[in-house]
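Structure tokens please, single chain.
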Amino acid sequence: MTQEERRVLKTLDKIVRSEVVRAQIEPIVERVCADLSRRSDRLMTWEPIALGILGDQLPSAIHSGWIFVLRAGADTGAERHPNSHQRMLSLRGKGDMQTDTKTIWNEVERESEISWQSNVLVSDQNAPLEARWISIPQNVWHRPVISPGTDWVVVSFHTVPATDLIEERPGAKQMRYLVDRG
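Here you go.
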């Protein structure tokens, strides 16, 4: 991790740890958790965060924030964001945000063509930054594998507005979180 990336993650960490921000994020977390509970057919649910609640210290590259809740024991499959750098923090529970060992554009038709590296993230605020946060550059394949027993709640920051965030699956299947899957 570069010093600049570490600085960005530390800034985001400070923002998310703020009691004021946590108080505003918590109702979103509860809504998204309740949504996942109601929708037994879904592996995850999400909602964007209004950037205004994050204060005025947000790094200029960040253009959207999200709360995702991923179902306990799930593997949501490979995805990448061709138009965004993603930074993600584990808020509750734990999971393994696996990433492609190839950090360059890796065109695949099937998930089995990807070589995965494990990145287990925990929600202990006293754990080191690298144990709670992950930085996933644009176009890098990643897949969350969630521990059994407890849903995994994460906050995710992207370098594009919420309406523009593209998810791509192997075989070049693209969708937008707010338009195609909302």
